[in-house]
C-alpha cells in the first residue's frame, strides 16, 4: 500500500515513516502543502495521512484536493482535540482523525480500519435494514426512503455495527472495539461521542430525540426498535 504522509514535524515524521515502512507500507513524506500537491499530481496513493497545521496551509486544503480526484481514505493528524475541528474535517470527507501525541499501534489500527471500506474484495452483496434505513454493503451506501445519506467511513462502520447487532444493547467499549478492532485503552472515548452525534444528525428525523440509535443510560446504545 502506498501512503502519502504530510507532516512538518520531522521528529514525528521520522518515527512514523520508520514504523509504517516496518509494517510493509510504501511511504512518501512531504513537509508542506506545496510539495504534497506536486507529489499528488505526479503519483497515485492508496491512503493519505495529513497533518492539519502546515507551514504554508492546512491539511484541509489537501483533503479537498484528494477527495475531488481520488477515492482513497484520509486520516488527519491534529494537536487540536476539539469537536469543531474534528467535525470540519469529517464534513470535508476525511475518514478519521487522531490527536497528537498518539501511539503507533493506535494509528496502525485506525489505518487498517478505514481501508477496509475501500477494499472491494471485502464487500458482500447484502442489504441490511435498520429501522427505516437501508444499508447496501455491495455499494457501501445508505438510504432513508429513496434518499441517499452520505456518511464518512467511520460513520458507515458505526451504523453497520448497529445493524449487525440490531436490538442489542452495546456498551461504549464494544462499539469502540468494533470500530477499530483493538483494546479500548488506546481509544479516545470522546471520538465515539462525536460520531454518535454526527450520525444521529444525518439519519434521525429528530437527533435530539433519536429513534434509530437510542441511548441506554449507564450502559451504552441500542440500534433499531
Automatic annotation (TrEMBL):
<keyword id="KW-0238">DNA-binding</keyword>
<dbReference type="GO" id="GO:0032993">
    <property type="term" value="C:protein-DNA complex"/>
</dbReference>
<dbReference type="GO" id="GO:0000156">
    <property type="term" value="F:phosphorelay response regulator activity"/>
</dbReference>
<keyword id="KW-0597">Phosphoprotein</keyword>
<feature type="DNA-binding region" description="OmpR/PhoB-type">
    <location>
        <begin position="125"/>
        <end position="225"/>
    </location>
</feature>
<keyword id="KW-0804">Transcription</keyword>
<comment type="function">
    <text>May play the central regulatory role in sporulation. It may be an element of the effector pathway responsible for the activation of sporulation genes in response to nutritional stress. Spo0A may act in concert with spo0H (a sigma factor) to control the expression of some genes that are critical to the sporulation process.</text>
</comment>
<dbReference type="InterPro" id="IPR039420">
    <property type="entry name" value="WalR-like"/>
</dbReference>
<dbReference type="GO" id="GO:0006355">
    <property type="term" value="P:regulation of DNA-templated transcription"/>
</dbReference>
<feature type="modified residue" description="4-aspartylphosphate">
    <location>
        <position position="51"/>
    </location>
</feature>
<dbReference type="InterPro" id="IPR036388">
    <property type="entry name" value="WH-like_DNA-bd_sf"/>
</dbReference>
<dbReference type="Pfam" id="PF00072">
    <property type="entry name" value="Response_reg"/>
</dbReference>
<feature type="domain" description="Response regulatory">
    <location>
        <begin position="2"/>
        <end position="115"/>
    </location>
</feature>
<keyword id="KW-0805">Transcription regulation</keyword>
<keyword id="KW-0902">Two-component regulatory system</keyword>
<protein>
    <recommendedName>
        <fullName>Stage 0 sporulation protein A homolog</fullName>
    </recommendedName>
</protein>
<dbReference type="GO" id="GO:0005829">
    <property type="term" value="C:cytosol"/>
</dbReference>
<dbReference type="GO" id="GO:0000976">
    <property type="term" value="F:transcription cis-regulatory region binding"/>
</dbReference>
<dbReference type="InterPro" id="IPR011006">
    <property type="entry name" value="CheY-like_superfamily"/>
</dbReference>
<dbReference type="InterPro" id="IPR001867">
    <property type="entry name" value="OmpR/PhoB-type_DNA-bd"/>
</dbReference>
<feature type="domain" description="OmpR/PhoB-type">
    <location>
        <begin position="125"/>
        <end position="225"/>
    </location>
</feature>
<dbReference type="Pfam" id="PF00486">
    <property type="entry name" value="Trans_reg_C"/>
</dbReference>
<dbReference type="InterPro" id="IPR001789">
    <property type="entry name" value="Sig_transdc_resp-reg_receiver"/>
</dbReference>
Amino acid at each position: 500500500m502506498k501512503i502519502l504522509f504530510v507532516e512538518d514535524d520531522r521528529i514525528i515524521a521520522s518515527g512514523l515513516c520508520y514504523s509504517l515502512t516496518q509494517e510493509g507500507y510504501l511511504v512518501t513524506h512531504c513537509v508542506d502543502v506545496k510539495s504534497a500537491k506536486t507529489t499528488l499530481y505526479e503519483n497515485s496513493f492508496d491512503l493519505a495521512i495529513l497533518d492539519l497545521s502546515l507551514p504554508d496551509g492546512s491539511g484541509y486544503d489537501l483533503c479537498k484536493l484528494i477527495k475531488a480526484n481520488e477515492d482513497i481514505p484520509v486520516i488527519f493528524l491534529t494537536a487540536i482535540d476539539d469537536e469543531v475541528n474534528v467535525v470540519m474535517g469529517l464534513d470535508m470527507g476525511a475518514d478519521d482523525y487522531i490527536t497528537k501525541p498518539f501511539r503507533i499501534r493506535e494509528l496502525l489500527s485506525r489505518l487498517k480500519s478505514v481501508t477496509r471500506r475501500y477494499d472491494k474484495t471485502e464487500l458482500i452483496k447484502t442489504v441490511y435494514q435498520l429501522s427505516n434505513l437501508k444499508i447496501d454493503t455491495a455499494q457501501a451506501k445508505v438510504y432513508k426512503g429513496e434518499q441517499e445519506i452520505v456518511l464518512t467511513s467511520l460513520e458507515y462502520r458505526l451504523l453497520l455495527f448497529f445493524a449487525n447487532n440490531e436490538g442489542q444493547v452495546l456498551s461504549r467499549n464494544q462499539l469502540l472495539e468494533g470500530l477499530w478492532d483493538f483494546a479500548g485503552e488506546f481509544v479516545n472515548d470522546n471520538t465515539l461521542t462525536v460520531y454518535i452525534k454526527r450520525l444521529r444528525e444525518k439519519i434521525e428525523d429528530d437527533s435530539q430525540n433519536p429513534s434509530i440509535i437510542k441511548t441506554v443510560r449507564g450502559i451504552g446504545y441500542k440500534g433499531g426498535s
